[in-house]
Amino acid sequence: MFLGKLMTSCLRGERTTSYKSSCSEISSLKNGGLLVEELIRISNGDYNPFCVFSEHELKQATKDYDQNLVLLLDDNYSLFQGVLENRGVVLIKKTNDHDELVEYCIREIAIAAYVSTNRNLVKLLGCCLESKVPIIVFEYVPNGNLSAYLQEEKLILPWRCKVRIAAQVAAAIDYLHVGKSRPLIHRHVKTGNILLDANLNAKLFDFGLSLEIPLGETYVQALVEGTIGFIAPESVDTGKFNEKTDVFAFGATLIEILTGLEPHDVFIQASSTDRFPSLTPAAESSLIPVPLPTRRDLLVFLKSNLINDAKQNALNATAELAARCVDVLPEKRPMIEQVAKELRQIQNM
């Protein structure tokens, strides 16, 4: 039945855009087929309904992708604010026009459709399959990303907002890990991928790197991708990703919340040795190795560089939690469920 839902949408889109070039028609059929396969593989048909928009609709919504409407700019995509008829303001994620990015977009649509009911994940509204690389439409989240608030002096978040945001992101990751039949690993948790709504509530964004752990396995093997400072050292070394990978990235995010400093800078400054993580040849070509401090060295650095905007016991407890999350040994990191629980307790300090 779910195949019919998507294919009906694709066909309806094709009829309304029959004037378009054969390239658009070919892309629509090709991308539609890939998306159906990915939806079957990831969700077995248990996904939340979404719309299929025409390329013309999205061009109108963004005034032909007016650069003045760009809210976020990434190496691989631009995130536009757009206005769709009968839907109001939306976010439109337009990925760069490269063939190798198609699979990332298809995966993001399928995973977002699978998990869209969680309030701390950005909700998928639909997509356009006519372009060579699919374009994705999300709910509008008006206050940008957390990174901007931490890195720009004019944007100040009070402590109660920071710790609430951290707890909400931890809850979102926990949902990905245990809320479905197979664990989903986000693989790109960072402050730049945490959007803030009108009330400064967190919504985790960007599922382009997300992967599910195969049934009966404890990890998923994949190309090492992501952002320096947020990738767990064992994943850089082996290309294996699991729940503790996301815990490390969350810990790095918590470090940035606590200090206002980017995690890789913290790791470098806190490290008392010249030891570097070992890298595979493939990883060396795309990643810069970051020195990894001991937990003790990291805690000393964190406690001397905290933004003092809360009670000292709350700050210290959060620093200690962050240090545990980025432990060099994954088995010493807490599960994200425990992290979320501790953050809720810290909120009451």
UniProtKB/TrEMBL annotation:
<dbReference type="InterPro" id="IPR001245">
    <property type="entry name" value="Ser-Thr/Tyr_kinase_cat_dom"/>
</dbReference>
<dbReference type="InterPro" id="IPR011009">
    <property type="entry name" value="Kinase-like_dom_sf"/>
</dbReference>
<dbReference type="GO" id="GO:0004674">
    <property type="term" value="F:protein serine/threonine kinase activity"/>
</dbReference>
<feature type="domain" description="Protein kinase">
    <location>
        <begin position="36"/>
        <end position="349"/>
    </location>
</feature>
<dbReference type="GO" id="GO:0005524">
    <property type="term" value="F:ATP binding"/>
</dbReference>
<dbReference type="GO" id="GO:0007166">
    <property type="term" value="P:cell surface receptor signaling pathway"/>
</dbReference>
<dbReference type="GO" id="GO:0005886">
    <property type="term" value="C:plasma membrane"/>
</dbReference>
<dbReference type="InterPro" id="IPR045274">
    <property type="entry name" value="WAK-like"/>
</dbReference>
<protein>
    <recommendedName>
        <fullName>Protein kinase domain-containing protein</fullName>
    </recommendedName>
</protein>
<keyword id="KW-0067">ATP-binding</keyword>
<dbReference type="Pfam" id="PF07714">
    <property type="entry name" value="PK_Tyr_Ser-Thr"/>
</dbReference>
<dbReference type="InterPro" id="IPR000719">
    <property type="entry name" value="Prot_kinase_dom"/>
</dbReference>
<keyword id="KW-0547">Nucleotide-binding</keyword>
